[in-house]
Amino acid sequence: MRKKIKETIVVEGRDDITAVKAAVDAELIEVNGFAVRKRSTLEKIKNAQERTGVIILTDPDFAGEKIRKTIENYVPGVRHAYIGRKEGTRLKDGNVGVENASPSVIIRALNDAKCKLIERNDIFTSMDMLEYGLTGGDDSKNKRQIVGVKLGIGYGNGKQFLAKLNHFGITKDEFLKAMEK
Length: 181
What we know:
Helix content: 40-55%
Number of helices: 8
Strand content: 5-15%
Mean pLDDT: 93
Strand order of the largest sheet: 4-2-5-6-7
Structural class: alpha/beta
CATH topology of the largest domain: Dna Topoisomerase Vi A Subunit, Chain: A, domain 2
């Protein structure tokens, strides 16, 4: 039996719907990529946020981040679920997307969904990023990818990752546990 999710899940396309439905039982909204900018689509998401709450699950790429920002600017308080690039990459052709993630990865991402804080807590600094090897090192990008998955905040370059740590209210304890793993 598939896990029941009470929130409405927003995805980019038809193939994402198929993958998410294989993992969970939930209401879904497909935004058709950048067609998310249509007022009717944003109103549908806003209505779902008021009715059930919304979790955004987009591809781990530039387009996915742009779609998240578009929705978040129009519908505050949505939650964000992230899959890692490796988890969403199809081996045969390198295609990256939610549609390539396994049901267990999708369930983990939905369970780890987070809401951005209205007021960020600036616990983390650029010095922390350097100290923990998340910037400035040969393996920094890989470390951010791994830690981003462990924390459920997705990937970002050094500046974006720092902002995510503070915007999603990650505690030092959560951060240190993720770094240990």
